[in-house]
């Protein structure tokens, strides 16, 4: 074939490819420099990281948020329920303001992961997590008595307040169903339940990464699930003085009446390690203010 013939054959393919890339898919990106002047140790972020579409299924009530990609850190945690030669990482669901909030723990490896998870639930949040308002309603001594055909059976001490009892059960159910061997939970001989039975206890925005107190580096990929207006999730990073050093946005795989996974990449420039905060929020369709904000205290590694 002549060069002219080859060019004629390739041209339609290139046009089709360009049209294809202009369609569909969650959008995300950096919003550019912060609007405030940068302090001597901080320069506005000009990173323009891109965010890949969420890899999880749209409804996290059937897919544990632990299946979402994790934010990169200096020591990346293993996915929930998986083991390394030395440690196992488990996802724990605590309570804040009457809603379920996740975090993670890396602990010495064990085959009794369900027992480990329930022990950690009863132990309660770390100091960094407690500072964000996290607490636990699960008492010590709760253990799984049997796991058969994906059904975990256990007893949970009753609570005087029905709402408190439901939150306690929700903590247990959402924590145990992260493991592939547990699809449903039977509590005190009642009918089996799963995550969908307690999905109403999730806040509009759930952050699965980073976790409170985590040391994070740039670029940081913030992950979680959300049910927000037009599926748009916004992120900003604050330094130790409360100044914005990075902002970004992304779209969840589902939104405005349904819950979907999101990934938002942000980058910053700092010359020293310092405490910081990652805020994930929704922009109000009514007045443009930040609403449904989830603030995660972190340790910002130098970046630039």
TrEMBL record:
Transmembrane segments: none annotated. The keyword Iron-sulfur does not apply. InterPro entries: GerMN, Gmad2_Ig-like_dom. It comes from the Bacteria. Residues 1-24 form the signal peptide. Residues 25-85 are annotated as: Disordered. Residues 114-196 form the GerMN domain. SMART domains: Germane. Keywords: Signal. This is GerMN domain-containing protein. It comes from Micromonospora luteifusca. The lineage of its organism: Bacteria, Bacillati, Actinomycetota, Actinomycetes, Micromonosporales.
């Amino acid at each position: 074939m002549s060069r002219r013939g080859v060019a004629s054959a390739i041209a339609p393919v290139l046009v089709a490819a360009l049209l294809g890339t202009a369609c569909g898919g969650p959008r995300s990106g950096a919003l550019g420099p912060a609007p405030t002047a940068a302090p001597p140790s901080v320069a506005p972020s000009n990173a323009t990281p891109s965010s890949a579409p969420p890899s999880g299924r749209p409804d996290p009530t059937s897919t544990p948020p632990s299946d979402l990609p994790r934010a990169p850190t200096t020591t990346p945690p293993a996915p929930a329920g998986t083991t390394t030669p030395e440690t196992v990482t488990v996802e724990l669901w605590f309570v804040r303001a009457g809603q379920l909030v996740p975090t993670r723990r890396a602990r010495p490896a064990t085959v009794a992961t369900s027992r480990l998870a329930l022990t950690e639930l009863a132990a309660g949040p770390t100091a960094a997590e407690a500072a964000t308002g996290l607490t636990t309603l699960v008492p010590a001594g709760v253990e799984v008595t049997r796991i058969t055909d994906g059904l975990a059976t256990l007893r949970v001490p009753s609570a005087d307040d029905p709402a408190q009892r439901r939150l306690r059960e929700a903590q247990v159910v959402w924590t145990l169903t992260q493991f592939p061997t547990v699809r449903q939970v039977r509590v005190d001989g009642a009918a089996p339940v799963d995550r969908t039975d307690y999905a109403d206890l999730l806040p509009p925005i759930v952050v699965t990464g980073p976790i409170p107190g985590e040391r994070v580096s740039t670029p940081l990929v913030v992950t979680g699930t959300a049910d927000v207006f037009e599926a748009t999730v916004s992120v900003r990073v604050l330094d130790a003085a409360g100044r914005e050093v990075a902002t970004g946005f992304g779209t969840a795989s589902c939104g405005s009446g349904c819950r979907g996974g999101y990934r938002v990449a942000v980058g910053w420039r700092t010359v020293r390690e310092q405490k910081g905060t990652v805020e994930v929020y929704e922009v109000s369709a009514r007045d443009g203010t930040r609403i449904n904000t989830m603030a995660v205290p972190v340790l910002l590694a130098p970046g630039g």
